[in-house]
Amino acid sequence: MPWPFNIRNIIYPKERYIWAPIRIIHETKKAILVYNGRKTWIPKSQINGIKIKNNAFEIYIKEDVVG
Q1: pTM
Q2: Is residue 33 a contact partner of residue 18, using CB atoms and an 8 Å limit?
Q3: In whole angstroms, what is the distance from residue 29 CA to residue 14 CA?
Q4: Backbone angles phi, psi at 61, to 5 degrees
Q5: Three-state SS across 17-35?
Q6: What pLDDT is stored for residue 39 in this prediction?
Q7: SS3 assignment, position 41
Q8: Please, which residues have CB within 8 angstroms of residue 63's CB and are 6 or more apart in sequence?
Q9: How many helices (H) and strands (E) does the chain have?
């Protein structure tokens, strides 16, 4: 079994993705304005998935983008 703590993981940590519940306010060709406690423009190129759960939109995005 490989050792989980190596120098590469410390220098280049893996990006974490999450499903974030949002409310879509406005959409353009390149980005969407969402509300998840504050208004934020998110580029469509950074969204990796969209689903509806319990009558709310959720997007699959990097953890640090939506916060």
Answers
A1: 0.72
A2: no
A3: 29
A4: -150, 165
A5: EEEEEEEEEEECCCEEEEE
A6: 92
A7: strand
A8: 15, 16, 17, 18
A9: 2, 5
What is the mean pLDDT for each group of 10 consecutive residues in the chain (67 residues)? 70 85 93 90 93 91 79
Count of Cβ atoms closer than 10 Å to residue 20 Cβ: 19
Q: How far apart are CA 20 and CA 30, in angstroms?
A: 19
**Residue in this structure with the two tokens 């959409």, named with its chain if needed:** 27
Domains in the chain, CATH or no CATH each? 10-66 (2.30.30)
Tokens (6 digits) for 18: 């999450």
| Sequence-ordered list of residues with C-beta below 8 angstroms from that of 60, at least 6 positions apart, any chain | 17, 18, 19, 47, 48, 49, 50, 51
DSSP annotation of 11: H
